[in-house]
C-alpha cells in the first residue's frame, strides 16, 4: 500500500516584548526563579490583566508577513485547567476570535520545487511557568518567571505531506519572526516550540486518518526526525491490523521514538469562555496601515531582490535569506567585494562548512563580513591565489588577524615577478629531466597536456603555492617549446 | 458622635469640634463593646486605624484635609488592604494579608479616611443573607435572628448598628442594595466600570462593582467622589470624567420622568411591600416628577441568566485558590491532585462549591451553547429592555427585595428561594447599569428598600433624586432597635 503523510504544525513563538503580555514584569531570560513574577503573574487575589499593546502590534506584523486577514476585533478567552505552574488555573488565550486569520507561506524544497502552506490562524496567549522536578527531594519547584510571557501560536493547515516540508515550513516561520524582530526564535531556549499533528492515509484517499499530536519538539532536526519516526510507527501499526489512536505523544530524541502521553478520553475539557477582565481588542485601519507601512523587508521579497540586484539564481538566493543575519552578512560581503557570486559561494561553501563543523550560528561567526570581502578582493587583484585563499579563510576563522596580516605573516603573497618564476621553472626542469623527456616524447595531445600539468604542479609546489599559476603556465610553455 | 452621619462628622472635624483620633478611638471602643451582637467585623485594625487617624489629624493641621479626612469607616473584606488580613469571608484566605492595596483602598487611604476594620461578608460574596461566611453569620440590628442580607451583610450591619458611618461594599447581583434594603440604609452600586475592580477579589468579573453603604445619599455622594475614576490597572474601568456628585444633590426634580416596571410589581412582591414602594413613588410626584408604567419584558429571565453567567465566571476566578502560592493548603499533600482536592475541599464552603460546580457544568463541552451562550443572549435582551425604557424615562423605580429582613436559617436549605432574593436587583448588574436602594417605608417594623435604577453614568441624577426624597421623608433616619 502506498501511504501519504499529512502534517499540520502548531508553532508557539515567544514575542520579544520588554514586559509580559498582561503585566509589567520583565520577560528577560535567565533571572533567578520567580524574580520576574509580579502580583499579576502570581495570580494574587484581585489582580487584573492589562494587555501589552506591543504584543498586539507584533501579531499584526506577523499577520501581514503571511498575507493573512487581520481581525479588527479579537477576543481573549480563558482556557481552564489546573496545573501547578499555571497560577490562575486558566490560560488567557484566543479561542473563538483570534487576531490573525487565514494566511499562507511558501517554502522551497530540496528538489527545487516550491510549496504553499496554509495558515489556519494565529492567536495571542500567555505562556505558563515552569515546573522543576529535580533538586527538591521528591517535591516540585515552580518558577513563574516565564508565566505571562506573550506567545503567538501559529496554527497551520494540514497542508504538509512530508517531514521535509514540515521542517521547511518551520524554518520559514522562524525566518519571518526573526526578520520582523518579533522573536529571537531561539528554539534551544524555548522561544519557539512546535507541536506536530501527524496522520497517514492510503494514497488517493481524501479523508484524513486519525492523527496524533507530538508535543514540544524543540529543534528543526527533531521535527523532521520525530515526524518520520511517528509516520513509520503509524504505518506499521495500521499494516499490522491496528488502529491509530487520537492522542498526545512525546518525542524522545535520545531513543528516537514517540511515546503516548495521554489519550483522547483523558483530554481536558478546557471550558473556553471570553475573559471578562479584558475588553475585546479593537484595532482600526489607521493602526493596521501604520504597521504595514513600517514592515521590514521579508524573506520572499529579499530573495527576489537578491536575484535581480545581485544576479543570483533562486538556488543561491534561497539559503541566504533563511535568516536576516545571514542575509545582512551576505550583502556586506557582496558590497565590500563587489562580487556577489563569490560572496555567495564563500558563504554557502567554506563559511557554511566551518559553521556546521563547529556548530556555530551566523551571529557568532568569527569571520567578519568586511574581512571576507577583503579576502575576495585579494584573490581578485591577484595578491593571493584562490587556493591559498582557503588557507587564509581558516586563519581568519581562528582569529589570527586581518586578511592582509595573515597573507603577510604566512608569506602567502602570490609571486608574479617573471624572473623569479623563470628561476623556479629552470630549477624544476633541471631537477626533473625524466618528466621533461616524458612530456616531449608524448604524442597524444591529451596525455601530453596531463604531463604538462604535472610539471606546472612541480613549479607550484616549489613556490609553496605562491607562484602566479598563469605566469607559470606561460613561462613553462615557452621553455618547453624552445627546448624542442 | 455615633448618631452623626458621615457629612456631619466631616463638618465636626472641619470645625475642630473633634479629632479623628477621638472619633476613631470611640469607634473602636464601640466595635469592641457591641459587635459581639452582630458579628459584623472579621478583622478590627486598631493600631493601623489609630495611626491613620493621627496622620489624618496631622494632615488637617497642615491644611491638607479633604471631606473624608479622618472619617472612620469599614471595608468589606473583599477589598485588598495592604498588610491587613483580607479573607473574603473564607477559610481559604483566613491568613491572607495582601502585599498591595486595592485601588479603592488606596484612594480612601489617600483621602485620609480611617479604615477601622474589615467587614464580614458571605464567602467570596456568594450569598444573600450573610450566612455563608466562614467567620459566622451576621445579625441584622433590626432584630435578633434576622439576616442583614448579603453578601455585604457585615458592611450593612456595621452601618445600621451605628458602629461606623459608612462602609465600602460590592454588588454582583444585589449585594449592596439588598442588604441596604434589609438594614434601612442607602446603598449605591455605580455603573459597571465607574470604580476600579483592581484589588477586589473577583466573584464574577463582568458583574462585580464596588459601591457604598451609608445612612443617606449625601454621604454616598461623598464616598463616590473619592472612589470613582478610571484606573489603568483595570481594563474594564471607564475613562470618563468624575463629576462632583455632591454638587447636584439639591437639583429640582420637577419634570423628572420615573418609570415603574410592571414586572417588578408581580406576585413575587407582597401587597404590603408593593404599597410601601408605591407610596414612596407618590412622594416623587409631590416633588414634581411624573410617573408612568413601563415594561422590561425579559425581567423574568434575569435570575436564570445570572445564575449561569456569575457561576461560570466564578468557577474560573476561583481556580487560583489552589493551595500552591497562598491561602489554605491541606496538611501533607500526597501529590498535586491531592493538594488541589483537599486544599479546595477544606478551604471553600458549601455555597462556593455549589457555584463552582454549577459554573463548571455550564461551561463544559456540550453545555456551553445551551447555558453560557444562551445566558449571554438573554443578557443582551435585558440590556435592550433598559435601553428602550430609558428612551422614555430618566429613572426606573421599584422594590429592592421581595420581602423585608427574614430569619436566619429560613432559606439556607433552599438555594433557589435564596437566589430569588435578588430577583429585582440582578437585571441592573447584567446590564451594567447604576442602581441604588434607599429606605422607602416599613413593613412589620422592618425597613423596605426603594430601588432606583439609572442610565449609564447617571449616578448624579440618582443621588439627587435620593437626596431630595430624604429631605422630605425620614425612613432613612429610623434607628434599628438593636443598634449600638
Automatic annotation (TrEMBL), chain A:
InterPro entries linked: Asn/Gln-tRNA_amidoTrfase_suB/E, Asn/Gln-tRNA_Trfase_suB/E_cat, Asn/Gln_amidotransferase, Asn/Gln_tRNA_amidoTrase-B-like, GatB, GatB_C_1, GatB_Yqey_C_2, Gln-tRNA_amidoTrfase_suB_CS
Recorded name of the encoding gene: gatB
SUPFAM superfamilies membership: GatB/YqeY motif, Glutamine synthetase/guanido kinase
Reactions accelerated catalytically: L-aspartyl-tRNA(Asn) + L-glutamine + ATP + H2O = L-asparaginyl-tRNA(Asn) + L-glutamate + ADP + phosphate + 2 H(+); L-glutamyl-tRNA(Gln) + L-glutamine + ATP + H2O = L-glutaminyl-tRNA(Gln) + L-glutamate + ADP + phosphate + H(+)
Tree of life domain: Bacteria
All copies of domain Asn/Gln amidotransferase, residue ranges: 328-480
Listed PROSITE patterns: GATB (PS01234)
HAMAP family for the chain: GatB
Protein family (similarity comment): Belongs to the GatB/GatE family. GatB subfamily.
GO molecular function: asparaginyl-tRNA synthase (glutamine-hydrolyzing) activity; ATP binding; glutaminyl-tRNA synthase (glutamine-hydrolyzing) activity; transferase activity
Protein name: Aspartyl/glutamyl-tRNA(Asn/Gln) amidotransferase subunit B
TrEMBL record, chain B:
Source organism (scientific name): Halovibrio salipaludis
Assigned protein family: Belongs to the amidase family. GatA subfamily.
Molecular-function GO term, any one: transferase activity
Entry annotation: catalytic residues: 76 (charge relay system), 151 (charge relay system), 175 (acyl-ester intermediate)
A Pfam short name: Amidase
Enzyme Commission number, as recorded: 6.3.5.7
InterPro entries xrefs: Amidase, Amidase_CS, Amidase_dom, AS_sf, GatA
Gene Ontology annotations for the cellular component aspect, listed alphabetically: glutamyl-tRNA(Gln) amidotransferase complex
Residue numbers spanned by region Disordered: 1-20
One Gene Ontology term from the biological process aspect of the record: translation
UniProt keyword NADP, yes or no: no
High-level lineage: Bacteria, Pseudomonadati, Pseudomonadota, Gammaproteobacteria, Oceanospirillales
Record's function text: Allows the formation of correctly charged Gln-tRNA(Gln) through the transamidation of misacylated Glu-tRNA(Gln) in organisms which lack glutaminyl-tRNA synthetase. The reaction takes place in the presence of glutamine and ATP through an activated gamma-phospho-Glu-tRNA(Gln).
Every Amidase domain range: 23-463
Catalytically driven reaction(s): L-glutamyl-tRNA(Gln) + L-glutamine + ATP + H2O = L-glutaminyl-tRNA(Gln) + L-glutamate + ADP + phosphate + H(+)
Signal peptide: none
Domain of life of the native organism: Bacteria
Subunit organization: Heterotrimer of A, B and C subunits.
Protein name per its UniProtKB record: Glutamyl-tRNA(Gln) amidotransferase subunit A
